[in-house]
């Protein structure tokens, strides 16, 4: 069973969604800023929901604002689901997340237009706050969808700007009555841009994603004393920012010692009082560390916590830490990964198995159903930046692979083949 997707329709939808919250990069690139549960997110949601309704899909909005659209089908069987997210970081590109949602919609529209009779329905969803840039943790909507966090706990999460998640959800009109946890799919497949340099460097068109590395996010709060920058001798300061810089240097050393694929990032920094001539009394900053091996990740976390305490002590500071996100590495279903590989090859596309460096909704869905991901190349490996770019040919090829994988999965019986 095969279907040809309409590549131009897919590209038009990607362009139209990107006009909402449009931003311009340093060299004029067109990006998107639709932080979760803002007015821009609402407008993006409204557009995609309109497209879902225009196709006559059965659209459900659940208690955390995840939107799931299922093709009408007489069987009542669990659907093969595609999906991703349409929220972005504040410096987002046009493809991160949006591709997986709009490609899923494209597959469904193509199948319905061709009148193909399926054994089970197809579905496409977008999950709330995948980015975690406004409300931590990341992949929050899909975490709640699979029952990994109680809804009430998620609704109480505070944004970086202080707003309560549940209030923001109501304010944009996206707290629905659908159940959390939600409908368990027969299988889940997420098409996503790679967001890294590997496929382009290897000259490979499709990544068959084997899993997602473990993610650990910590907020560190250091409290010292603000004082006059001219009169306070260096030996008598309790300078929170000086301690943060020392921690940054030690973090980079630890990451270098462990070596690839270990990564470490200090991404968000708030300094108080943030003035040129005042020793900073308080600093609050985030540390993001990731590794494919849970044991290695744990030992890096332990070492980072130890240096935070040691350096805070040396600078005479009070210290507290909070875990913002912690997800173990996830392995996708090898049988579905093999279907992705075989489908890409059948289209004459070069394909390579690879882990994902970024977090994805698929890693949550993998808790409840057979799951895999398809990657398409990212030019220069750039993402979370308006310069994020994937060629039209690669977007269309990835979507065609998604279509064929989804159709094959409608006839796939995991029990027979395991
Ligand atoms: C989330 O998408 C992340 O990888 O940070
Ligand atoms: Mn994404
Ligand atoms: Mn992202």
List keywords for this structure.
418 residues, alpha+beta, 4-stranded antiparallel β-sheet, 13 helices, Alpha-Beta Plaits, binds glyoxylic acid, Aminopeptidase, binds manganese (II) ion
What's the SSE pattern?
A: HEEHEEEHEHHHEHEEEHEEEHEEHEHEHH
Please give the count of helices: 13
Alpha carbon gyration radius: 22 Å
**Major sheet, described briefly?**
9 strands, mixed
CATH fold-level name of the largest domain: Aminopeptidase
Strand content: 15-25%
CATH architectural name of the largest domain? 3-Layer(aba) Sandwich
How is this structure best described in words?
This protein has 418 residues and is of the alpha+beta class. The chain folds into 2 domains: 7-212 and 330-410, Aminopeptidase, CATH 3.40.630.10; 214-327, 2-Layer Sandwich (Alpha-Beta Plaits). Helix content is 35%, strand content 23%. It has 13 helices and 17 strands. Strands 3, 4, 5, 6, 7, 8, 15, 16 and 17 form a 9-stranded mixed β-sheet that branches. Helix 10 (334-346) crosses helix 12. The chain starts with 6 loop residues before the first helix and ends with a helix.
In short:
By secondary structure, the protein is α+β, with helices and mostly antiparallel strands.
Question: How are the secondary structure elements laid out?
Answer:
Blueprint: H1 7-18, E1 22-24, E2 30-32, H2 39-54, E3 58-61, E4 67-70, E5 80-84, H3 98-113, E6 122-126, H4 140-145, H5 151-155, H6 165-171, E7 187-193, H7 198-202, E8 206-212, E9 214-223, E10 227-228, H8 240-258, E11 263-272, E12 278-279, E13 282-291, H9 294-314, E14 318-327, E15 330-331, H10 334-346, E16 351-356, H11 362-365, E17 371-376, H12 392-410, H13 414-417
Parallel strand pairs: 5-6, 5-7, 7-17, 8-16
Antiparallel strand pairs: 1-2, 3-4, 4-6, 8-15, 8-17, 9-13, 9-14, 10-12, 11-13
Helix pairs in contact: 1-3, 1-12, 3-12, 8-9, 10-12
The protein binds glyoxylic acid (GLV) and manganese (II) ion (2 copies).
One manganese (II) ion binds next to loops.
């Amino acid at each position: 069973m095969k279907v040809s997707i309409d590549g131009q329709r897919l590209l038009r939808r990607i362009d139209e969604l990107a006009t909402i919250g449009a931003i311009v990069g340093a060299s004029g690139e067109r990006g998107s800023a639709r932080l979760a549960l803002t007015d821009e997110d609402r407008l993006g949601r409204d557009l995609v929901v309109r497209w879902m309704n225009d196709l006559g899909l059965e659209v459900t909005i659940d208690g955390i604002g995840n939107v799931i659209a299922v093709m009408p089908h007489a069987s009542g069987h669990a659907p093969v689901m595609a999906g991703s997210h349409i929220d972005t970081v504040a410096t987002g590109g046009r493809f991160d997340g949006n591709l997986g949602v709009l490609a899923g919609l494209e597959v469904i529209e193509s199948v319905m237009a061709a009148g193909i009779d399926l054994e089970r329905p197809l579905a496409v969803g977008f999950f709330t706050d995948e980015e975690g840039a406004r409300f931590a943790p990341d992949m929050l909507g899909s975490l709640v969808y699979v029952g990994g966090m109680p809804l009430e706990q998620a609704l109480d999460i505070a944004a970086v700007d202080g707003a309560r998640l549940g209030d923001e959800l109501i304010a944009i009109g996206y707290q629905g009555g659908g159940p959390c946890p939600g409908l368990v799919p027969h299988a889940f497949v997420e098409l996503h841009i790679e967001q890294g340099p590997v496929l382009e460097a290897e000259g490979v068109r499709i990544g068959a994603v084997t899993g997602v590395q473990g993610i650990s996010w910590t907020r560190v709060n250091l409290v010292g004393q603000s004082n006059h920058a001219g009169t306070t001798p260096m030996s008598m300061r309790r300078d929170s920012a000086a301690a943060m810089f020392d921690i940054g240097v030690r973090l980079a050393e630890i990451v270098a010692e462990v070596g690839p694929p270990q990564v470490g990032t200090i991404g968000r920094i708030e300094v108080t009082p943030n003035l040129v001539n005042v020793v900073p009394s308080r600093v609050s900053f985030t540390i993001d560390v990731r590794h494919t091996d849970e044991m290695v990740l744990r030992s890096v976390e332990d070492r980072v916590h130890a240096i935070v305490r040691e350096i805070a002590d040396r600078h005479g500071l009070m210290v507290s830490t909070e875990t913002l996100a912690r997800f173990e590495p996830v392995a996708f279903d090898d049988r579905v990964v093999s279907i992705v590989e075989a489908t890409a090859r059948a289209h004459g596309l070069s394909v390579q198995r690879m882990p994902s460096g970024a977090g994805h909704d698929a890693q949550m869905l993998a808790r409840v159903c057979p799951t895999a991901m398809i990657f398409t190349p990212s030019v220069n490996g750039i993402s979370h930046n308006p310069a994020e770019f994937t060629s039209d040919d690669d977007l269309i090829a990835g979507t065609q692979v998604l279509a064929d994988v989804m159709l094959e999965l409608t006839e796939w019986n995991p029990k027979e083949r395991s």
